[in-house]
Amino acid sequence: MFPQQLADSGRARVRSQTGSKVTNVHMMALYLHFIVERHREAVLWSWAVGRMTQIAERGEEDWVEAAWKEVGGVAEASKVQVRSKSRRTLSLEHAQSRLGREQGDYAFNAYRFSSDDGYPYAALGEKGTGNWPEMRRVDLGGHPHFKCTIERRRCFPTRDDLVAGYTPADFFQHIAFIDVECGDCGTSCSVLVSGAPH
Questions:
Q1: Under 8 Å CB-to-CB from 16, ≥6 apart: which residues?
Q2: Neighbours of 140 (CB within 10 A)
Q3: Max CA-CA distance within the chain?
Q4: Is 1 domain-assigned?
Q5: Is 100 helix (H, G, I), strand (E, B) or coil?
Q6: Alpha carbons within 13 A on the beta-carbon side of 158
Q7: Contacts for 191 with CB less than 8 Å, ≥ 6 apart
Q8: CA distance readout (Å), 86 to 119, 134, 138, 179, 192
Q9: In this structure, is residue 100 part of a structural domain?
């Protein structure tokens, strides 16, 4: 996916000096963030395309209304406040069930985030913050990861969009890659996280 950058980094002598045009790639850091970003895409795709396409194909209800309802919206509302719930994903019991008993206390102490917690970068902004959100304690006032707003007009398709052929795949493209704050906030919804692949 990054052939030019990897080739440039491979040609660099040890490490580039500050101001050099050569970009050094740290493969482990790249891999870590790549996996986190691909997980975000999987969460959003599973919900927006996988689930909403099934609803659309059944024809029993409007998939846009169903999606709006699942994130907590009501028909008359123009926006919905999404609030995360406390999760047990980093509890000792949960970590051991995923990693095996031999991991013991190390697993509990070493991990700050689990893919079960949604998208960890949702509230970091362009410059980041001092620390990761603590998923074991929900502090609505202390960290924006636990509270965000989804605006219907901004994040969801209109009737005109649907008449023009807008599909759940278009919806996914919009919330995942175009207006990323819509998707980031969506990953804080427990309904999206609980149905996501691990």
A1: 22, 23, 24
A2: 12
A3: 62
A4: no
A5: coil
A6: 4
A7: 47, 70, 71
A8: 14, 9, 5, 26, 15
A9: yes
Q: How many domains does the chain have?
A: 1
In a domain? residue 63: yes
DSSP 60-82: SS-HHHHHHHHTT--TT-SEEEE
Smallest Cα–Cα separation from 67: which of 196, 172, 147, 173?
Answer: 172
pTM: predicted TM-score of the whole model, two decimal places: 0.78
Tokens of 71: 């994130």
The boundaries of the domain holding residue 142 are 43-194
Q: Check residue 52 and give its pLDDT.
A: 96
In a domain, residue 186? The reply is yes
Q: What is the C-alpha to C-alpha distance for residues 103 and 96, in angstroms, rounded to an integer?
A: 7
| Closest residue by Cα to residue 111 from 96, 122, 121 | 96
Amino acid at site 7: A
pLDDT tens string, the chain, 198 residues long: the values are 889 888 888 877 666 555 556 667 888 888 888 988 998 999 899 999 999 999 999 988 899 999 999 998 998 899 998 877 666 777 777 777 777 666 555 555 666 666 666 677 776 666 666 666 666 665 555 555 667 889 999 999 999 999 999 999 999 999 999 999 899 888 877 666 555 444
Task: Find, among 51, 33, 40, the residue nearest to 182 by Cα.
Answer: 40
